[in-house]
């Protein structure tokens, strides 16, 4: 199988716990990921007080330290993984048998919520930015904090500059008003890298049907999240499939992708799933339901690859 996963917190978890990308006790490491076959992965950075063991680091410091750690891990595992910025670079990495690694940011406070910080991040290879994580910031409210607040003028300018640079706007943690302003503002595809169907699991981090349709209308992508709290109970493989099937019923054959949120979920995964190696179980479950190999491959790889090819061109 081929896998293009739109979101994991592995880089941040390794930074916090002092472990390595090559092999670690979390949900993702290079050994297990490459065992799947051709594998591309967005690695996210976000801010929590304990991300850097000494504690108390500012979001901007966490970003700089995280980028250095990412580069160190790339160098230490150069035969297995390479950083990519465009679809062409992803294809070249996969053809050489390496993991295609892309960097993303979860919460623009890591970039100072500024255009200057955004451009520095682009230069360092960041190709997707979630405007907010759980915290509201100068750009917008989030689902978890100030959920009634949409984009500020600063937030709108930030989104517009992302489009000019060729960066994916990620709305997975964004407030509902912010979501709809992004949907109106962006000219091309945008993404919800790790969000499920709110109609199946009434959690605000998930998407309403109209939100999903808005992303599909812009030819974007929505990544299926494996966190139990967003899958709903019973948190089983069948329930994960139910979210995929719900989105497919909304016309999402070219929109649904994978965004497992692994290493952000910790142990709070559906029954029988413990890490990236178990994506094969989901792949096989869809095939057993008589979905075509072409469609299942699209969900696991082609849909997100198409979006990256269209947006991340530089």
UniProtKB/TrEMBL annotation:
Q: Which PROSITE patterns match?
A: RENAL_DIPEPTIDASE_2
Q: Which SUPFAM superfamilies match?
A: Metallo-dependent hydrolases
Q: Which GO terms describe its molecular function?
A: metallodipeptidase activity
At the top level, the lineage of the source is: Bacteria
Q: Which Pfam families does the record match to this protein?
A: Peptidase_M19
An annotated GO BP: proteolysis
Q: Which PANTHER family match?
A: DIPEPTIDASE, MICROSOMAL DIPEPTIDASE
Protein name in UniProt: Dipeptidase
